[in-house]
Amino acid sequence: MSLWTSLEPASATVDPGDSTTVRLRLRNTGDVVDEYRFETVGSLAPWTVVEPQSLRLYPGTTGTAELTFSPPRTPDATAGPHPYGVRITPTEHPEATSVPEGNLTVTPFTEVRAELVPPTVKGRFRGRPSLAVDNLGNTKLTASASGSDNGDRLSYDIHPSNVQVEPGRAAFVKMTLKPRQIIWFGSEEARPYTLAVRRSGVAPLEVAGTYVQRSFLPRRLAAFLGTLVALAIAFVMIWIAYRPEVRTDATEKVQEAGIATLPPAPSPTSEASKASKAPSADVAAPPAATETPQANEAVAGAGSDGSEKKETDTQERTAATAVQQRAAKDPSGPHICYRVYATGEGWSDAVCDGETAGTVGGGTPLKAVNIAVSGTHGTSSGAYAHDPASTSGEGHFPDPWANAADGVDNYVGSTKKDAPNMLGFTINVDGGKGAVCQSAYVHNDAWLALACDEPGTGFDFTYAGTHDNDSWIEAFRLTV
């Protein structure tokens, strides 16, 4: 070979955003004049400048070139050692190319940026922001996230709580903010909070956000309910003050007429002859409670064609019908009956006292619910439905709460063709007469734990179902 080379120094160190210089010395050991061209190779080539780019040397002479390394202060210039080389190509003898090698160590630097997406979230029971952690340094970042607020009004569910981020990459931390107290009525309230990104040996990086907590019942609905209660009180007071007298003469006369028209009890000797004759049209039929077995047989055998016309009960069996029948069989305690209106299936059969209404695991959303009670002074209920305009991931109460007295049907939800799916419903029993308990089955989930209202404690109702706008309630059980 006709060339001698040397890098001075062979190993160097540089800070990102700064520069350092390495000297390249070479000697023409051949016997002819030659020109040498320089080219850097390796990962540092884009940030390296060689001056001059070529040298012309006479035999036995030595020349010098300088290599200037200027890595940027970006994640591309990763921390650590970076081998490099300088390709030297002689013009006269290109086959005698030489590549002296050196090593340049880039020092580490750390730069972190954190951002809340979105910075403000709204909800009644929870908010779900995300924290974006960007590693703008040139070394791997390990950090943890935690939340805090003045007054400890929020709880924080952070997943994952620890992240490792490569240089030039970002990691997203998902969070669920939950208020420790529910706002039942009134206007929404802003809850400022702070998320801290913590690293070992460095002051935490804090990011501020706001959770806007909405009231459980919207202000307009609360005003409507207040007006409704005031009107109800006014109506009761007017009724008490101006209640009309109701005479019972008509009832007494009906009873007397009923007693007067009772036929004499048939004697055993005339039973056969009466069975062969049709009853007179001028004589009123006796009440069912006073009929004897012999009289029933006589009526059954009468008629011009000898056949009986059977009545068919085509009336719909609602929850009120079912609870009245249940109360008649068992008057010892309160009862609750209910049925559901499901998509594509219509109204189900009414069930009572802890039996399952709906289809478990069938994926069929409920559209409406029919409830009736006995022995509890009535019930109140409201449907919580899918909200297509939701920005918080939750549904809403589209209609005011519905009320019904004992033995009367209470309907919530809608049976219209385009009615939204029910996510759940609230329910309580009125007048402080007992409590109502419920357990609900949510789509793609499982049976939720049994929950009851607590009259007189501020929790005068219980909620059956989910608040997730992408899910729905499939089945439930109720007891009182």
TrEMBL record:
This is Hydrogenase expression protein. It holds the Pfam family ChW. The chain crosses the membrane at residues 221-242. Residues 268-298, 317-326 have a biased composition (Low complexity). The lineage of its organism: Bacteria, Bacillati, Actinomycetota, Actinomycetes, Kitasatosporales. Residues 306-316 have a biased composition (Basic and acidic residues). The keyword Transmembrane helix applies. It comes from the Bacteria. Residues 260-331 are annotated as: Disordered. InterPro entries: ChW. Keywords: Membrane, Transmembrane, Transmembrane helix. Coiled coil: none annotated.
